Amino acid sequence: xxxxxxxxxxxxxxxxxxxxxxxxxxxxxxxMVWGREPVVxxxxxxxxxxxxxxxxxxxxxxxxxxxxxKSGDKVYCHESYAKDLYDKMNGVVVSGNKEIVKxxxxxxxxxxxxxxxxxxxxxxDGANNVIVDLNKEDKFFNQLTYTEGNETKAMTKETxxxxxxxxxxxxxxxxxxxxxxxxxxxxxxxxxxxxxxxLTNELKEQITANSKAYYATILSTNRGGFVVEIMDTIxxxxxxxxxxxxxVTDFESMVGKRMEVMIESMIDSWDPSIKFVVSRKKYIRxxxxxMVQQLKKKLEANKDTVFxxxxxxxxxxxxxxxLDDFITGMLHKTLVRDETRELMxxxxxxxxxxxxxxxxxxxxxxxxxxxxxxxxxxxxIARREAEEN
Length: 389
Known about the structure:
This protein is of the alpha+beta class and 389 residues long. It folds into 4 domains: 2-89, no CATH class; 105-196; 210-284, CATH 2.40.50.140; 302-388, CATH 2.40.50.140. It is built from 10 helices and 19 strands.
């Protein structure tokens, strides 16, 4: 018995001979796939033509673009088992649970351009394919760059479509071990949503791992701190007390700065999009031992290296001088010129004042400074001790 597109049965002898002959030819073609030996198939009378007629456009069969076939291969079957059959014929072995679940991450193993608005992702180690709408992936493209002349630019949909056909670009993209997030429909997914969820999970781990730093851009000031964007992707809050090694006095001047930060904690904030607290100070403290070692190496080459620093505050023992983002030293009152000592007594050295200093001594991560060259320092120390007595 044969079936019409409406599903009604009728006797094969009642079918017009021309259409019956066309079906016989089509069946012969589809039973011989890409020059291989015929596969075991049902008889012509039992064959379900509806799946093939769904792909019939009036002139010929439409390929099933949801099956990621090798170059030169075309699959015309539109049944649900088409992918599995094709893989079996190509000796592809797929293991594990390959069912696609809504709102989950799937690993990407191949990317193929369907048209200028669509790509097809092979996921789950080759078991499934999902469609990505390129018109919704602008934020992901902006994470990628390309070189035009001497200028580095962020990608757009148009440049991505051109680049995906270049084998070296495609290979480098796949080497990033990207995931896509399946949406409410298991047939569609988003690389950007997958990237955001992966990064979010990584940031959660870093609260305790403390093994990675991330670039963050300060977007604005807010409630005693700053709203920042981590890796141009996820918003976070950075308290003013965690924004630098020393106290920040001008919050507005920080807006627009890009800096390394580490993850401090999670937060239930006034803004639902802000889920993390980040700290620049945590990063500085993590890097400080390394930066001190670099400073020691510089001093081994020249113990009288002159550093330009800025005053950040003062105590009864001297003033604090920030040499760079990482190292703040104390310019001690017993190690300074007479003029500097007088200004200290009058509290006349304001925060932000630029000073020229030498490194007198390093104790652990503490740096003691002087504004006197090393060959004059002993005499200055003796004079200061005499003054104290």
